[in-house]
Amino acid sequence: MTVRFKEFDHIITEQYQAEQAFLAEYQQGQYTFANPYVKLNPYLIAPLTALVMFKTAEPTTVSITVKGKEKAGDISFKFPEATDHMIPVYGLYADHANQLEMILGSGETTVVTLQTEAAHKGVKQPTQITTTADYFQDNIMFLTSTSTAQVAGYDYRGDVRWYGTINFAFDLKRVSNGRLLVGTHRLMIPPYHTTGIYEIGMIGKIYKEYRLPGGYHHDQFEMEDGNLLILTQDLPRGTVEDMCVLVDRKTGQIIKTWDYQKVLPQDVGGSGSQDTHDWFHNNAVWYDKKTNSLTLSGRHQDAIINIDYETGALNWIIGDPEGWPQELVNKYFFKPVGEGDFDWQYEQHACVVCPNGDIMAFDNGHWRAKVKEKYLPAKDNFSRGVRYRIDTEKMEIEQVWQYGKERGAEFFSTYICNVEYFGEGHYLVHSGGIGTFDGETCNKPPVQFRGEDEKKVVLNSITVEIKDDVVVYEMHLPANFYRAEKLKLYSPEDELTLGKGELLGTLGVTEEFTTIPPAEESGIVPEKYNVKLGLEEDRLIFKATFEKGQMVLLQLEGETTHSYFVPTTKRPFLAMCVGTFQESDERAVEFPVSREGLAGEFKVSLIVDEFKYETGVTVSL
Amino acid sequence: MAVEVREINGEELEQLVNQGKVLVDFYSKTCGPCKMLSFVLKDVAKSVDGVEIVTIDFDTNKEAVERYGVESYPTMIVFSNGQEVTRVKGLQQKPKIIQIIG
């Protein structure tokens, strides 16, 4: 048997089994305040968390403090009155005998030692951090990775106080129920489109996965009613990152769709990284209640656009108008005004609508021009956070703030990054995609270098907070990180609830290929193709190694035969926004087939060029 | 109703594009989707009429590639009496190709 086959559970099922196991263990013992039940990493994916459980005879509050390495590093929270106490513990240090102090309402105190293991090797340590405990307090800077690194949260000293062991993707945001929304670690379409988003508690428990037929990328936004705006695409039409959907929070069903192909031409205004497949590259969405509109960042048209929430009609475009048709320029583009410095943004990320209607973004500045002859090389370029004031009546735009231009190439990121608005004059600017190749600032995303070239790449990520034009926080990490989000570990709304998480929405039916090429029956698939098959609750995952240019068709043969074309030619992605799913072997292929629409027993076979191979695997779907 | 798929070179293409409706597939021997597309085109050919379906090697016909601004393979262009009508990049399935032929 040359094919490896494994059935495995969805992480939600694994977590449920783990929960059942520790609850059973807890029920078997007599745990008290003085001798509580302690479970480190109860949900398997957040090693710096724990769950402490015990009973008290009378209802009482419990105040806890995870002791810092110094006083300023203490993390405290007070839990409401109860007799059955489930205390989530966050903010432990790795490889450390953590002291957890617990105080009941009566004043009774106990201290529990929680010995953690050394951090996963992918947890990056800061190479520089500049702030004060007074300023940063018990906030944690969370960063989601795009290079080989774990998602992690760092305190004012740069100590890691939270990290995840699975490959969460893209944006991590706290929502109104105190939980986090983050891209799933389940790859749907290489190089980085995943199945959807997780709703996860700080303890690491995944409460929901919102799955989408077109997969998820880059960003999500919680509406006031709890429904979710999620960025996606319609895969069969052959383009990516050009749709947004509104997803019902309870059911996961798509209830509204915005298709940018309906309002934008796809063959004009292209940035230096545009191709026909990824013509817009939508990397952020923001809903503004005042104008009832969506603001969307499109890296590959150097454009921040605004569309009407109800109709999807285009309202305006912020961007350099060069190369756009004049009728669109006249109707939708702004004219710069004001006395101060002004630059358009190029290949920007993370648009934000400020409370007064100003638009902020991270202006990567990649290429910093609309025509090739004017492209600015990375070594002479800059990235920055920028804030524009727009007048949609006069169609005028003024640049009212920026940070980063003065830092030049050392702050330059060709891709990813974000800004945050904390209040007037108080912003976060995260340049997370910095890299040099052989000492030269990279002109392309540094994670695109593979093989021997990868060894010549030095990665950096710089996260800055500015308050009244003073830098009050700066952290450097030796990796690339998609976004930075400053959060507190504890949120009163993020209550741990027991029970199995939910798989919502749908992966849809994977597109089948209707033309079947002739192929000679050739026995069992050769070992050189390194074929692996994984059967998950909602999909079959095919992995193998092929030479570039081989023609591969995956077939499921049962009462009916289902055939799927497996791409072996890598698309030249010019925006490798998340490189964490990349295999070290460039020939590696991964292709998931949704189980939706498939029922029965199927023999799995392969057509590789003119040969047909059996895998020896039969699956029951 | 059927036509044949045949391979041509750049010079032949110049002659051919002016003669009625032509679907040209720029392909490469080093490309999996191109190989698959060759089978799809044979399948399409069985179902259409009044169109020439031809393939041209991207790697050995650089002049034609440049003349028609072909950036990647596979790329299919439909010409009608010398005028480009439609251009589609990437592997497509039979119904889509029949649709672009029109």
Give a brief description.
The complex is a heterodimer of chains A (about 625) and B (about 100). Chain A is mainly beta. Chain A is built from 3 helices and 43 strands.
Structural key phrases:
heterodimer; A: 621 residues; mainly beta; Immunoglobulin-like; Neuraminidase; 3 domains; six-stranded antiparallel beta sheet; six-stranded mixed beta sheet; 3 helices; 43 strands; globular; B: 102 residues; alpha/beta; Glutaredoxin; 34% helix
Order of helices and strands of chain B: EHEHEHEEH
Assembly state here? heterodimer
Rounded radius of gyration of chain A (Å) = 25 Å
Question: What's the CATH C level of the largest domain in chain A?
Answer: Mainly Beta
Largest sheet of chain B: 5 strands, mixed
First-last Cα distance of chain B? 15 Å
Please identify, by name, the CATH architecture of the largest domain in chain A: 6 Propeller
Name given to the CATH homologous superfamily of chain B: Glutaredoxin
Protein structure class of chain A: mainly beta
Strand percentage of chain A: over 45%
Task: List low-confidence stretches of chain B.
Answer: none
